[in-house]
Specification:
Number of helices: 6
Distance between the termini: 27 Å
Number of domains: 1
Strand content: 15-25%
Low-confidence stretches: 120-129, 243-249, 253-259
Mean pLDDT: 80
CATH class: Alpha Beta
Structural class: alpha/beta
Number of strands: 12
Largest sheet: 7 strands, mixed
CATH topology: Purple Acid Phosphatase, chain A, domain 2
Order of helices and strands: EHEHEEEEEHHHEEEEEH
CATH architecture: 4-Layer Sandwich
Amino acid sequence: MVVISDVHLGTFGCHATELVQYLRSIQPETLVLNGDIVDIWQFNKRYFPQSHMQVIKEIFSLLSLGTKVVYITGNHDEIMRRYSDLTIGQLQLTDKLVLDLNGKKTWIFHGDVFDRTTKGSAKIIAKLGGYGYDLLILINRFINHLLHLIGREKMSLSKQVKNGVKKAVSWIGNFEQTAAELAIENGYEYVICGHIHQPQHRIIKTEKGSVIYLNSGDWIENLTALEYDRCTWTIYQHDEQNEKASKQIKPLVPLRKPLSIEDLLAEQLILNASSLK
């Protein structure tokens, strides 16, 4: 099983090419897309490059090869929540997922339910903040390009901002603690989230018990995923020098004609439905 979240297709910060490499290197029994895969908040038809479209095609390619794909909705793709509990063959759309993994009760959801900034009037500010974050990522890429030219290590402006703001550090801690407490109260042994772009794998204990908290991180800054194999969860960290990524990767296939994301999704859903006949 593989869990990926916070890809934010349709934004400048998305590392789509690296994600395509990763998706081509795996073939899990189940692929969980844990929210914010397509960034509907900042979606702009003028910016949806071929590499972003290729991510969607790779996901459907895994689907056609027998991988079960579970799309859990997040706040940036919340428009899809109106279709929750839709199942077409091996493709499932839902708001949360509860699994029994070798006797371990596992709760998977995006995590925005704990974030007040994604609700009501505060959502407007959050959307504006999203544009600022995207701009910061662009500036960061330019700086890192210059650092690479002079042989210096890369840096992350957004991480420095988050780590330098006590409220941000406290908010992340509160998020993880809240998720853990709810999971313990409901008898879960694992709780898996996304949303906060902070990959994590740790045990959280309270007076009522303990739970293993995991977060899949993101494909904006950290380029991480969660992998479950042989009863063990690990955090995958993408690296261009990594053995998986260094395999011979076929180039992106040029599209015969420009396609909208709606056209591509419709085409793939039709193909998937026809295979059920």
